Amino acid sequence: MTETARTAAQSAGKPPGLGERMRATVRAEVVEVAHRLFSEQGFDRTTVDQIAAEVGLSRASLFRYFGTKEEIVLGRLEESGRLIAEALAARPDDERPWGARAGPSTS
């Protein structure tokens, strides 16, 4: 199932299945370990093999969860961007972008 299909299924109110929850758990652990290693050693000196070994995955398995080492870092930004886009889309059409707030509309 693609990420888009997963998001659509979740948006439709269908709770994620066991496989999706397990995938999310492994992804979160990889991100946590990778960010720790990046902080300790730097991005360039941290290898995919190191990340995989710390999480208990093979290199091939890690690449089933993330396409690149960079995706491990940027994955959180994608989710944040999606949430921001949804929040802005929910704002009134006549509201100026710099005036948009996170709370309910005051106009």
Assembly type of the chains comes to single chain
Which of globular, elongated, flat, extended, rod-shaped describes the shape? flat
Number of strands: 0
Count every helix, treating DSSP H or I runs of 4 or more residues as helices. 5
The residue fraction in helices comes out at 55-70%
Approximate strand percentage: under 5%
Global structural class: mainly alpha
Rg calculated over all Cα atoms? 18 Å
Q: Could you describe the largest sheet, including whether it forms a barrel?
A: none
Q: State the order of secondary-structure elements, H for helix, E for strand.
A: HHHHH
Average pLDDT confidence is 84
Q: Which stretches of 5+ consecutive residues score pLDDT under 50?
A: none
Q: How far apart, in Å, are the first and last alpha carbons? A: 41 Å
Q: Can you walk me through this structure?
A:
With 107 residues, the protein is mostly helical. Helix content is 64%, strand content 0%. Helix 2 packs across helix 3. The longest helix has 24 residues, at 18-41.
Give a summary of the structure in a few sentences.
64% of the residues lie in helices and 0% in strands. The protein is built from 5 helices and no strands. Helix 2 packs across helix 3 (48-55).
Q: What is the strand and helix layout of this fold?
A:
Blueprint: H1 3-11, H2 18-41, H3 48-55, H4 59-65, H5 69-89
Helix pairs in contact: 2-3
Q: Key terms for this structure?
A:
mainly alpha, 107 residues, flat, 0% strand
